[in-house]
């Protein structure tokens, strides 16, 4: 598996009430960590604000929000290189 950038983890963590303080792994299931449908909306706003991007509707589906890794794979191409 691949590593999830710390900056992305810092954006995710406030939306995952059941996550411990350790590193998030790509295979961690977002629903199991406490992300619900309202949390998804808030998380999207935070991702868009943090990276200055707009996440296209066509990538917003259940598979995108299955795991930390699937969400990062969807968002990473939108993130400007820093």
Automatic annotation (TrEMBL):
Keywords: Phosphopantetheine, Phosphoprotein
Domain Carrier intervals: 1-79
Keyword Phosphoprotein carried by entry: yes
Any single Pfam family the record assigns to this protein: PP-binding
Gene3D superfamilies linked: ACP-like (1.10.1200.10)
InterPro entries (UniProt xref): ACP-like_sf, PP-bd_ACP, Ppantetheine_attach_site
Taxonomy, superkingdom: Bacteria
Keyword Phosphoprotein on entry: yes
Name of the protein described by the UniProt record: Carrier domain-containing protein
